Amino acid sequence: MRTRTPSRPSGISELLLDTEHSHADIATVLSQLQAVAPYRCAPVVRPPVNDPAVIKRLLDVGAQSLLIPQVESAEEARAAVDATRYAPIGVRGVAALTGATRFGRVQDYAELAHTELCVLVQVESRHALEQIEQIASVDGVDGIFIGPSDLAASLGHPGDPNAPNAPTVIEAVEHAIGRVRAAGKPAGVLTTNPAFARRCIDLGTTFTAVGVDAGLLARGADALALALAWTFTQQAAASAAPASASQSSQVG
């Protein structure tokens, strides 16, 4: 199979390449995987839907870790796993000349591919929470990610996944983490709240997303605009001060 020796660390251990809530497509993901390859960073790709055709294409371009959204039952989790396995144990379509096989150069890919794949599933609704032990018991599910935003909406708090005024959501996420860990599977979560991220890690999450690129860009732009506004306001005030003093002297 494949081996990779990163040249230097990136400072980030995992990076989610999202095609569910972005304009990214297969070609975008391929470029992103190539960009991440030299670094000590594990790329995880989220398909837009739990669909074997989409999953097949992502695997063929070289994705090795997948985060499957909106998994509601053990049956759906099993379908996600089956989509990553070749027959006779799964339904993944076979193509010999793909990026994942280095265009036919990895001779044992078909036999060993599933042993090097990571299948994570998202539990993100009230119904899915009720099925969490059954989902965790599916062979081939390598971890369960608690999706707080959709879960918040399902629990009656749309757009408010981790704020203090949504305690039912916080409680549900924390309880779900414990149930996943008790089932013997790794648990994960997304939160941009540093205190809640630390809390989740203390509870046992082993993959914890703490930022979103669009949010980082937007907040950075806001901070820059605020800093520039303050700087130029002070500069304008300083420039106006000598002129005012000169006018006072002339009047005097």
List the helices and strands and how they pair.
Layout: E1 14-18, H1 26-36, E2 42-46, H2 52-60, E3 65-68, H3 74-82, H4 109-112, E4 118-123, H5 126-130, H6 132-136, E5 143-146, H7 148-154, H8 167-182, E6 187-190, H9 194-203, E7 205-209, H10 213-251
Parallel strand pairs: 1-2, 3-4, 4-5, 5-6, 6-7
Could you explain how this protein is built, in words?
The longest helix has 39 residues, at 213-251. The strands form two sheets. A five-stranded parallel β-sheet has the order 3-4-5-6-7. A two-stranded parallel ribbon has the order 1-2. The chain has helices at 26-36, 52-60, 74-82, 109-112, 126-130, 132-136, 148-154, 167-182, 194-203, 213-251, and strands at residues 14-18, 42-46, 65-68, 118-123, 143-146, 187-190, 205-209. 46% of the residues lie in helices and 13% in strands. It has 252 residues and is an alpha/beta fold. α9 (194-203) links the parallel β6 (187-190) and β7.
Spatial strand arrangement across the major sheet: 3-4-5-6-7
Shape type: globular
Mean pLDDT: 89
Order of helices and strands: EHEHEHHEHHEHHEHEH
In short:
This protein is an alpha/beta fold.
Highlighted features:
single chain; 252 residues; alpha/beta; five-stranded parallel sheet; two-stranded parallel sheet; 10 helices; globular
